[in-house]
Amino acid sequence: MITKQKIHPGRREKFTKTSGRVIAPLDALEEVKKAKSVEKIMVPAGSKDAKIRVVPLGGLEEVGRNMMYLEYLDPGSKYHGDIIIIDIGLQFPEENMPGIDYIIPNIKSLLPKKNKIKAAIITHAHYDHIGAIPHVMPKLGSQIPLYGTDLTLAIIAKRQVEYQDIGGRLNLVEINNDTKLDLGVFQIEFFGVSHNIPGSVGVIVHSPIGILVHTGDFKIDTRSSIGGVTEMDKLKNLSKKNVLLLMSDSTNARETGHQFSEVDIQHEMETIIKNAKGRLIIGTFASLLGRLNEILQIAEKYDKRVVIDGRSMKANIEIASRLGYIKINPAILISASEIKRYPSNKVMILATGAQGEENAVLMRIVTKRHKYLKLESGDTVVFSSSVIPGNERSVQFLTDKLYRDGAEVINYRMLDIHAGGHAKQEDLKLMIETVKPQYFMPIEGNHSFLRIHAQVARRAGITDKNIIVADNGQVLEARENSVVLTKEYVPANYIMVDGLGVGDVQEVVLRDRQMLAEDGIFVLIATIDASTGKLRGSPDIISRGFIYLRESKELLYQTRQLIKKIVENDTKNMHPINWAWVKNNLRDEVGKFLFQKTHRRPMVLPVVIEV
Amino acid sequence: MITKQKIHPGRREKFTKTSGRVIAPLDALEEVKKAKSVEKIMVPAGSKDAKIRVVPLGGLEEVGRNMMYLEYLDPGSKYHGDIIIIDIGLQFPEENMPGIDYIIPNIKSLLPKKNKIKAAIITHAHYDHIGAIPHVMPKLGSQIPLYGTDLTLAIIAKRQVEYQDIGGRLNLVEINNDTKLDLGVFQIEFFGVSHNIPGSVGVIVHSPIGILVHTGDFKIDTRSSIGGVTEMDKLKNLSKKNVLLLMSDSTNARETGHQFSEVDIQHEMETIIKNAKGRLIIGTFASLLGRLNEILQIAEKYDKRVVIDGRSMKANIEIASRLGYIKINPAILISASEIKRYPSNKVMILATGAQGEENAVLMRIVTKRHKYLKLESGDTVVFSSSVIPGNERSVQFLTDKLYRDGAEVINYRMLDIHAGGHAKQEDLKLMIETVKPQYFMPIEGNHSFLRIHAQVARRAGITDKNIIVADNGQVLEARENSVVLTKEYVPANYIMVDGLGVGDVQEVVLRDRQMLAEDGIFVLIATIDASTGKLRGSPDIISRGFIYLRESKELLYQTRQLIKKIVENDTKNMHPINWAWVKNNLRDEVGKFLFQKTHRRPMVLPVVIEV
């Protein structure tokens, strides 16, 4: 699942400056160690009271912020208290959280136990699985190994450079689909999964109480290996060993049938590229690396010259090329400044900004802020993803501008980001039937997605009492042959990141921002003579976002008169003067007066200054 | 087209109080006059220089705010300057317009000519066609007759009562599909259209220069008359007379094929109602009167008792029943308080709030604020409309809560409000082929919708040069056998309504609101001794929406020190002191300091008080 990349312009600017070069992150790759793979999984024995607490910190009531940990409890054992983490993702903010950059999981319950954390396993490189690493790892301990495939780690490293002033160094350890890890009581295997970013894996946890399987994000594509292969054979073999618990991706659980095959998507894409009469501009996501690879292959086949435009897309493609995930003939790549040298029908532009992001390439083109690219009649613009909720307005603006400038627009709905990377109901059923777990827990999705996924599990033969729909923070206790949803909750509320602040924006700040956005602010300053208790001069008024002050002189005059009257009346017979009371009265009365005059409710802030 | 009904809670409350009774508007119906229909259309003669200016004031770059006027110019004629208006709608605000209630058309170009306005014709009762009446009509002249069908006028009247403190009385004149109006130079006929509210019409304007046709919102349903019939025969006859210009609804121009038939929708709805095992709660729009009627008919067939819940829905159903558009056996209606008397499978609830509106019935049920209705396991909740952009979050919240409380949720996508009421490409083509106009102008939609509709017109045989894609405010000049898109623009910018203010919220106020929403406000107050030019005491700081002040004592301390330093330095060698300069410096330096410390950019407002 890819979610919207809405980063505060101020912040984004900063990272560019800090990192200096666009491809800085690649240097960080040198720090990556290879994991030591063991020959054979050897599960230590546990006592009959041994249990694993499965603690989801996010991802069970939303799409995003995926993170969970497993904690082994067996008081007599040397492994007692051992913990592994799976994924450390972020969530993009909702519309009612103005100014918030993103939301990360609450790790409070982990902090007292941080010395027992053996590892964090990262299933793939999308932000909802890696995005909270710069914030979370320094607090948990940067020495903790982060396991992931080469591409996953490269993207984590790149992001860490962007956050170098807060994130610090990481202990990155590379695995592949066949790595077997000995993490004490937890013996880990992986299985490759098909998803819209290469290097995605699911996790198999062997433990004294049994096997737990975490799918990560996945889809199943039986007709093509372009998007990677979900290694169903590994899972089939596993089912013979009796899997205790399967935790599976619910992102697309509401969709019936099977997910599209990459074959069909490739075919559609090829038709578009083949038929484009003029230049072809494809707007997509920098993180959709599998798709970008396909497009580049087709471009080469049809002898197109390709401009890769957008900082993040360039960086990601460079990383993926270096690691061999994208095989590209460097000769077909040209820079934006060279476009004019080629005939229109030989030019293709891969651009960021299909969601109408303000400073991405597509928006810069249509608003004529792009240095080299101007729209020409005959251009075809392809939107390779459907609109993410919240972006409709910007995308509509973009589309209208494109039409106005004479471009042909194709909304290529099959490349829908939601549709593209995740298993649909029949795929999910197949996953459950393949793994044949004793217990099933849907993960990664809103509550309703989990409930619908639970219905799928029922159809796949799991009995109701063995299906566990949990909430964020709600603890499961897994024992040999049993998994119980407890009534214990660990803190799992939203931790909001706003600039350098993590978790310091509370409800009250957000409520204030919403209120300020609605009708603005109205500050009134009454200067009082301390000796007489009387107003000195006329009250000052400062207002923003309420009314256009220059055209509201009469209203301001009346408000000043009202303030004078209130202060006079309130202080007349009061000794000593209770200024808190006077201020409350000013707030109420001025608020009422302004509402009566305008039917708006600005935030009224009275200030009394005694001199 | 129905758009979201997001009215500021403060305002909504007020109208309830003012109008007193829920069904107050029905009284206003008594004021409606019947139109005098003429026997035969008699078009006056015009000179060979006669022309009609077609002036779209809204609806050509958006979905909403539909309004246009036709102005007859023929200097020698007694009809010279005559004007008729078609529709006076509103548009709901975008996400980047916090606090704005809605947007109305700019009528500046009409004001100097208001005495020449013969009539306003309203095609149907949806807000994007009637919503600006309370604001616009008092300015144009309330004596101007507003023509519409009985239901259209009843809903206009009801809304006018809600706005009685600004709207005043209206001159409402009732027409039906066959009324022929003599409006001087403009001779008007109507044709009934199928849409998702009854009483919808299109307009045929006979004039000395030829016939102009305005479809209003319409769809074509050849298999059913449930949703009304688009009178294609009338249009077919018209085509023999050579129609000069057809202006047609583009809302669904992006959709291929034909619109669904009400037969299919009814069938689906019947299946759901028949199969519901427990109570059935259907969330829909109060304005979808056609659909509500169908649901009520099926409910009666299956012997359900129906609760109509939601003020606007009750009022609309009462109006439509009185006028005979909804035929309902009063015996099946029960009140919410009576629900317990009936078995669950006999109870159906028609509720507002399918878009997750805060105070509508569905939200009150799931948040347990509804007096009589609590969710029970076995309840089926049907969402009868797809999610309007911007409402995803609330609808997802609602859905998750419903699942949590054990309800079954059905998203009935065929009842999609966008899909339901508007012609799709093949229907649009049929409209053009039936009317056979010389010129064609797509209306009602974003620019890209109009362009796609233009492509449809090309397929329907209209030549490129006879297809006119105009912008809001752009004037067309129609003469006998020619329509030309001029380069003349009348003002057609957004007029924003915020509380009692119409058009007073300008860009600067909106920008301030957006800025306040992002990172809040930081007011610093420096009290200066006028005699010495020195700070008196410590500067005061007031901040909202920026950080949680109680946990930021150190930052506040440092900021105060900075303010002191700046004031000291800036005033040391300056005589007289330029306070504007000092304030600017304070704004910049404190802003920089706060950004450096927090990476947030609150609005910094320095206040200097000399005492």
Give a structural overview.
Two copies of one chain form a homodimer. Chain A has 611 residues and is an alpha/beta fold. Chain A folds into three domains: 65-258 and 420-498, Metallo-beta-lactamase, Chain A, CATH 3.60.15; 262-410, Metallo-hydrolase/oxidoreductase (Rossmann fold); 520-610, Ubiquitin-like (UB roll). Chain A is 31% helix and 23% strand. Chain A contains 18 helices and 28 strands. The first copy, chain A, has a nine-stranded mixed sheet with strand order 1-8-7-6-4-3-2-21-22. In chain A, a hairpin with a 2-residue loop joins strand 9 (180-183) and strand 10. In chain A, helix 8 crosses helix 9 (289-301) and helix 17 packs antiparallel against helix 18 (579-598). The longest helix of chain A is centred in the last third of the chain and has 20 residues, at 553-572. Chain A is globular, with a radius of gyration of 29 Å. Mean pLDDT of chain A is 89; it is low at 1-26. At the A-B interface, helix 1, helix 12, helix 15, helix 16 and strand 25 of A face helix 1, helix 12, helix 15, helix 16 and strand 25 of B.
Task: List the main descriptive attributes of the protein structure presented here.
Ubiquitin-like (UB roll); Rossmann fold; 611 residues; Metallo-beta-lactamase, Chain A; alpha/beta; disordered N terminus; six-stranded mixed β-sheet; globular
